Amino acid sequence: QVQLVESGGGLVQAGGSLRLSCAASGRTFSGYTFGWFRQARGKEREFVGKITWSRGNTYYADSVKGRFTISRDNAKNTVYLQMDSLKLEDTAVYYCAADPAWVVTTKVGDFRSWGQGTQVTVSS
Asked: What is the spatial distance between Cα 23 and Cα 78, in angstroms, rounded to a whole number?
């Protein structure tokens, strides 16, 4: 099973930027889809964005489109979530997820492997 470890969370002011990292342990990830999700206090876990490992194709939730960017470093087995123009509403625990196949939907249940999460807090 793929092990995922997120890092890079912290406190940032509204309008600022933060980059999260997700280190994946394993052989190769050809055919894999990596996703980012977030869960605010008292709220449901929601989709943020996803990326295909082989081609780097991305897809984002409307709430973050134009502000967040997902990328991956093949040599480092790491995926990134670059967050710009952060808003108070972005405050949440952010989770990295992975699935060995192309995930056609944006649901939590589509992903088999999950990281432990990293807290992102946006202040005014």
From this structure: 5
